[in-house]
Amino acid sequence: MMPDSTVRLSYERHGNGFPLILLHGYPLNRTIWREALPFLEDIADVILPDLRGHGESPVPAGEYLMDTMAADVIALMDELKIPQAILAGHSMGGYVALSLLKMYPTRFLGLGLVATQAAADSPERRQGRMETVEQVKKNGTSVVTDAMISKLTSKVELYPQLERIMAGASVDGLVGSLLGMAGREDARAWITQITVPTLIASGGKDAINPRERPEEMATLIPKSWWVELPEAGHMPMMEEPQATGLALRSLVISTLAKKPL
Ligand code: MLT
Fold it and tell me: How confident is the model over 227-237, as pLDDT tens digits?
């Protein structure tokens, strides 16, 4: 299926150096990365977009194909005149990152996959998402946000910040993302062909994405290394910002060491 037309993403930009684009997960926004920035902004031009349907970006109706969200990111890179970047994605942002690597392999020199997976939804998960779509349409966004917070992290001190972030969720944004995630492809068949340095980072206590998922990506992606943060859950950049920031820093350094001058 051809991606729908792109939307103009809202973003923020911090630091100096080679472009590093960080994509947030669902139903979150770009601010999840803020605590990790001090470990990155002296070596990277860090670009934090809000994906469509999230944060301050436009919220179109309809299904958000991962390929369409990916095309939005390419449109932002083109607008900012960034021919090539290092890319990292968290959870749903990781699905979008894989789509970007597949569709636009020459635009990305390094890849970070944070608390995410290459597998598609199981039939049960897909069914669950469809039921959530109906509930969100009927009862509003709190159906998702109330149920999700304790799955994101067990660190209750992060709840006020996460509640503020998820308060920005909209019915169309949630529905579009749920439909898009439910329909995403199984990327395990092709990630063996990724040739760029790839960081896989995960929390040892992730209640959403079990340990087998990062492990199988580390097995399949040739130039990958896996950093597991034993005490983190699904939000390692907020739960352990220093360790996550330094892992991303190692991705930038490894990528630039291999980049032809
Ligand atoms: C996310 O954190 O982006 C989502 O929970 C991912 C998913 O539901 O598959």
Answer: 999 999 999 99
Which is the closest atom of ligand 1 to the Cα of 234?
2
Separation of 61 CA from ligand 1 center, angstroms? Answer: 19
CB atoms within 10 A of CB 171: 19
- Ligand 1: centre distance to CA 95 (Å): 9
Spacing, Cα 32 to ligand 1 middle (Å): 14
pLDDT of residue 260: 60
The pTM assigned to this predicted structure is: 0.97
Q: Residue 189: is it exposed, middle or buried by C-beta count within 10 angstroms (0-12/13-18/19+)?
A: exposed
Among 259, 257, 236, which Cα is nearest to 39's? 236
Buried/exposed 70-100: b ≥16 CB within 10 Å, e otherwise: bbbbbebbeeeebeebbbbbbbbbbbbbbbb
